Amino acid sequence: MKRFILALATLLLCLTSQAQSNPKIDSLVSQLRALGDNPEILYIYDGWHEKHVSTGVMLSGERKPSTPTGDAKTDSLNAQVDSIMLDRARQENKVFQTLKEACKSLAEDATESYMWEYHRGGVDSIYYSIAMGNHGDGRDSLVVSTGERDVYYLNAPEVAYFHYTPYSHNDTESQWAPRGYGWFNYVYTPDSTRGENEYLNIQAYTQSLLGILKQKGVESYPIYLSHDSTYTMGDDSNTMPFSVETKDPVQPKSETRGTVYTIRSKELAEAVLSQIVRATWQYLDEHPHTTYHFRPESTFRHGALTSLFSSSKDTQVYEEFRVFIHRWMEDEYSILVLNTQGDLWIPCEWPILQSWKNGKMTFNKKQKRLSPEETPKRNFDRQHIQRNYTVKDENEYTDRNRRIVKVKAEYKVSTEK
């Protein structure tokens, strides 16, 4: 019993140290969840710790009831659709207003903030940027970058942005037409100087998960994915729900080996997910210099491959380890544990694959519930990360150690946050 209490105390201390943030942000997350929104919370360590909280919102045009057709069945169906769409529009508007109010509340604590709004002719544009706090070394480290209508802040412990812009067509007349899209992002960076970092000890981490993933009710099968530089994604890019591609250097051969775990019960799936999250926090507490991206999800998102945890090593042959989660309807929950050398391409047929080699598929005979034609609809969202591509530019900025960095000609960029 004492051992259990000590382990629990250690875990709580770990969670507290990792999850510190502004209480106004914690309140915002609670409000958004109460409205049915699901903000993403991401923790990163790559020499320093970061916490990201982000969500998007889309506003639609004015709602008008569908025109009666005279057919009772059609009119009843249209009324149901109108009611659903109206509820959705009201919910999005509440999310929009909640984000605006939260930003204005955060601005009360700002070191510096910028707020710009435009509301003419039914067109809404908003740019909010808020910097809070100082890293505590007695110097003002805030760096300000300005655009035509927006401002970005660097080197602040807390930064929040909310940008809402109209769609180019700005269709305010059509029924249910979207008007514009907004994106909120909050970043908490408690450290001002870079610390040590190391690649994940894959064997130790996976060992901590095996006891969880081998319990009764969890099915498993191996999966192998590979391609070489002679094979291009081409039209297959539309059927890759998740892909990471390295441009510089191009990977001569890419291999991914791993295991797909499938659960048929929501209760068991969420219990397994909760255990994986706790085990991950505990591993990170015991290995504080491990580089990682971690989304401590409490539930499975429907129809999207969500990267729960990842750690990567930027070498000539890129190495990375990822844990994904995925849900289809209410009776199939999947956890993918993958180890990759080179680029990672996950084809939409992954739920029934044994192997995928340069586009040639071998299907897993145990997975008889699906056909290849059924798998694309199980992967709604597609994410493509282009890693280390070359950009020509000239720029000057101050890094987190307050060194002036001059960038000229060519430099590498990665789009993954």
Main attributes of the structure:
417 residues; 21 strands; 2 domains; single chain; 14-stranded mixed β-sheet; alpha+beta; globular; 3-stranded mixed β-sheet; 24% helix; disordered C terminus; 5 helices
Strand content: 35-45%
How far apart the termini lie comes to 41 Å
Number of strands: 21
Largest sheet: 14 strands, mixed
| Overall outline | globular
How many separate domains? 2
Helix content: 10-25%
List segments where confidence is low: pLDDT < 50 over at least 5 consecutive residues: 1-19, 388-415
Q: What value does the average pLDDT take?
A: 81
Describe this protein's structure.
There is one protein chain. With 417 residues, this protein is α+β, with helices and mostly antiparallel strands. The protein folds into two domains: 22-188, no CATH class; 202-389, no CATH class. It has helices at residues 2-19, 23-34, 72-107, 202-213, 266-286, and strands at residues 40-45, 49-60, 112-120, 123-132, 143-146, 151-154, 158-166, 178-188, 218-228, 242-246, 253-263, 292-294, 306-313, 319-328, 332-341, 344-346, 353-357, 360-363, 383-387, 389-398, 404-413. The longest helix has 36 residues, at 72-107. Residues 1-19 and 388-415 have low confidence and may be disordered.
Give a nutshell description of this structure:
With 417 residues, this protein is of the alpha+beta class. It contains 5 helices and 21 strands.
Summarize the SSE layout with pairings.
Layout: H1 2-19, H2 23-34, E1 40-45, E2 49-60, H3 72-107, E3 112-120, E4 123-132, E5 143-146, E6 151-154, E7 158-166, E8 178-188, H4 202-213, E9 218-228, E10 242-246, E11 253-263, H5 266-286, E12 292-294, E13 306-313, E14 319-328, E15 332-341, E16 344-346, E17 353-357, E18 360-363, E19 383-387, E20 389-398, E21 404-413
Parallel strand pairs: 9-17, 10-19
Antiparallel strand pairs: 1-2, 1-12, 2-8, 3-4, 4-7, 5-6, 7-8, 9-11, 10-16, 11-15, 12-13, 13-14, 14-15, 17-18, 20-21
Helix pairs in contact: 1-5, 2-3, 4-5
